[in-house]
Amino acid sequence: MESPVSARKLSKPLGALSALVMGVAMTAVPAAAHAEEADTKAPIVTVKSGDSFTVVANGDYEKVSFSLQDAGKIDKVVLNGVTKDLSNNIWSDLNHVKPGVFGAIHGENTLEVYDVAGNVTTHTFVLNPQAPTVTVKEGDTFTATDGAAYEKVSFKLTDAGKVDKVVLNGVVKDLANDKWSDLNYVKPGVFGAVLGENTLEVYDVAGNVTTVHFTLSATGPSVTIKDNATYTVADGDAYELISFKLFDEGKVDRVVVNGVVKDLSNNKWSDLNYVKPGAFGGVLGENTLVAYDISGNSTTVNFTLVEPMVAAGTPSITSHLPRGRIKQGAELTVNEGDWAQGAQLTYQWFRDGEAVEGETGQMLHLKGGRWPAGTVITVEVTGSLDGHRPAVASTTVVATR
Ligand SMILES: [Ca+2]
Ligand SMILES: [Ca+2]
Ligand SMILES: [Ca+2]
Ligand SMILES: [Ca+2]
After folding, report:
1. To bridge 294 with a disulfide, which of 111, 198, 253, 376 should be the other Cys (CB 3.0-4.6 Å)?
2. Taking the CA of residue 125 as centre, how many other CA atoms within 13 Å lie in the half-sphere pointing to its CB?
3. Which residues form the signal peptide (predicted)?
4. Angle at the Cα of 127 (from 123 to 130), degrees rounded to 5?
């Protein structure tokens, strides 16, 4: 209870003292407070991780992002002498630094980070962005060439800072971000590829791009019928036996006859020989052959197969008359010649081109006054055999007086 009293007693002097103290405080206390809060610590600079921020390739950066921290607030950064002012915050960022951005250059860079109090942290780093390497993969599975063009093409994509994506004629295909990647089996209609000129851009995760131009073609194999009698036996538009010559600049892969696949060694030139009913999928009647190149382009050919014709003999006519004379009264006999074994033979005789009714035997008797000199006498021999088409052979003689 004394203090308030004495305070009351000393109210006046205390007031003066108080003013004095205040006066001291006005000068000394703020000075002391400033000393207490003075920022002498330079900013902390750390590299941000994650593909979207920082890409390390072969020990250097393709791009780099920094996290900046200072309790006294970050003021600005100076990169290779180029100042970038930042809003004064405790936390700040300098993201996606690569050559050409914020004064960054290819090679060694110097980053100075200032806090509001003027403390500076200097950080040096090397930027060495390299665009992805794009190589064409070899092997029939991956790539087929057609002169300077490709019928299909596959690419190996590499980047020490990881491959991000490809853009083919403007169509984006995102890839898992890996150092090695692939773009396989590119042909017209796939991944945005088109017939003719194509542009492939390959991006790494730092945004570096390699551009490749290439041409695509899509030509099915050419299929021609071999006309040598050893290979092909035709009867009008139909074939007893048929052989094909196949060609494709991008290599012939296989043929499919009526759904039956025959794989061929992958060469530009190939053959499919001796197709007939029962061979390589061939059937009697209509057949469809599809020839494929190794890129999947195809050519379709239709053809008709018929049974083989019976092997015919060469018939001849003999007469029972002396010196084999062909005249009224003669008995003619056909010698049918040498036919296929087992062939069933039938006969028909003709007089001046008209079939003579009932004359279907091996012999013909020139009787009844109907065979004057000059009459043309023909015999047709027809041979039949299972699994064969009938063959017809004929021979002709002319009656004399
Ligand atoms: Ca790269
Ligand atoms: Ca990606
Ligand atoms: Ca082709
Ligand atoms: Ca093949």
Report:
1. 253
2. 27
3. 1-27
4. 165
Ion ligand 3 nearby residues (CB, 5 A): 151, 219, 248, 250, 293, 297
Residue 21 — very low, low, confident or very high, per pLDDT cuts 50/70/90? very low
**Residue 273 domain-assigned?**
yes
List, as one string, the DSSP characters of 172-185.
Answer: EEEEEEEEEEEEEE
- Give the SS3 label for residue 327: coil
- Residue predicted with more confidence, 226 or 37: 226
Residue 21: Cβ within 10 Å count:
13
CA 6 from chain centre, in angstroms, equals: 103
Put residue 35 in one of left, alpha, beta given phi > 0 → left and psi -120 to 50 → alpha.
alpha
d(CA 312, CA 318): 19
Specify whether 394 is located in the same domain as 323: yes
* 105 found inside a domain: yes
pLDDT tens, position by position, 356-382 = 999 999 999 999 888 999 999 999 999
CATH number of the domain bearing residue 261? 2.60.40
Residues near ion ligand 4 (Cβ under 5 Å): 253-254, 263, 266
- Distance from CA of residue 51 to its chain's centroid? 30
Domain boundary among 273, 305, 337: 305
The CA–CA distances, whole Å, from 353 to 208, 345, 358, 376, 395 equal: 89, 20, 15, 7, 12
Cα(176) to centroid of ligand 2, in Å? 5
Q: Is residue 163 helix, strand or coil? A: strand
Ligand showing the shortest atom-to-Cα distance for residue 217:
3
- Alpha-carbon distance of 146 to 292, in angstroms, equals 15
**Strands of 354-355's sheet in order across:** 354-355, 344-351, 376-384, 391-398
Q: How many domains does the chain have?
A: 5
Which ligand is located closest to the Cα atom of residue 144? 3
Specify the pairing of strand 55-57 against strand 82-97. Answer: unpaired
> Mean pLDDT, to the nearest integer, of 217-241?
96
The verdict on 33 and 63 lying in the same domain is no
Which residues form the domain of 182? Answer: 133-216
pTM of the model: 0.73
CB 62 within 8 A of CB 208: yes
Residue 311: inside a domain:
no
The answer to whether residues 121 and 145 belong to one domain is no
Which region holds residue 296: left if phi is over 0, alpha if psi is between -120 and 50, else beta? left
Residues 299 and 344 in one domain: no
